[in-house]
Design goal:
This protein has 1 helix and 3 strands; from the N terminus they run αβββ.
Length: 58
């Protein structure tokens, strides 16, 4: 496994951070947004991308 495969990738769209690739339950689409290997400070996590499996909401 490479380091890229181990570390997550994220992008910011409309001040929300999304996982990349985007999970099927999220409608965000990455266009030209920069990919990050860490979650950028000052951003809000997308509820869909960071939802725990088997849970609904907070």
């Amino acid at each position: 496994m490479t380091l890229e495969e181990i570390t997550g990738k994220y992008f910011v769209k409309h001040e929300k951070v999304h996982k990349y690739p985007v999970p099927s339950n999220c409608n965000a689409k990455r266009e030209s947004e920069k990919l990050h290997t860490t979650i950028p400070a000052g951003t809000e996590k997308c509820d869909h991308c960071f939802e725990l499996y088997g849970t609904k909401g907070g």
